[in-house]
Amino acid sequence: MKVDRKQIHAMYGGRCCYCGNLLKDETGKHMHVEHLLPVQRNMPKSKWKSYWKEYKPCENPENENVKNLMPSCPKCNIIKNSLPLEQFREMIKDTIRQCERQTSYQRALRFGMIEVKEWDGVFYFEKYVKPENIETTSKKYSKNLKISF
Ligand SMILES: [Zn+2]
Questions:
Q1: Are 19 and 128 in contact (CB under 8 A)?
Q2: How far is ligand 1, taken at its centre, from the CA of residue 16, in Å?
Q3: Mean pLDDT for the chain?
Q4: Which of 34, 45, 77, 118 lies 20 to 30 Å from 19 when distance is taken between CA atoms?
Q5: φ and ψ at 18, to 5 degrees?
Q6: What HEC string does 73-138 produce?
Q7: 83 versus 20: which is more confidently predicted?
Q8: Could you give the dihedral angle defined by the CA atoms of residues 7, 12, 17 and 22, in that order, rounded to the nearest 10 degrees?
Q9: Distance from the alpha carbon of residue 79 to the mean position of ligand 1, in angstroms
Q10: DSSP class of residue 145?
Q11: Contact 5, 13 (CB under 8 A)
């Protein structure tokens, strides 16, 4: 499959489709090309390290197509792994609860070094408005999702 990394990089203004952080450079060199619908490769967790050495065949080869590709930062792509979007959303929503177990997080919170904010549960690509469509798309988006801009 031929992939135009520059085109994928530009899809959301040079930002990660999930977290919205800027991707490092315009060539897409430090970007991961993400499959929105997973292309699972039957990866048992205990074999995580060997997985990269033994590249396994696709479980969902139909998802290996250009329309399913998104620009992602390496960190989001790696943690999403082969999760479907809604499971990935639940995983991200659970992040603070996971942090609460860590003593360094508890200490930073206790000393007022961090402030916890609720995540709206909307990935960057779901709220992204292309610059030329700001007027029409933002109205449509705010109407559908009840979020005002
Ligand atoms: Zn990201």
A1: no
A2: 5
A3: 81
A4: 45
A5: -100, -60
A6: CHHHHHHHCCCCHHHHHHHHHCHHHHHCCCHHHHHHHHCCCCCCCCCCCCCHHHHCCCHHHHHHHH
A7: 20
A8: 100
A9: 10
A10: H
A11: no
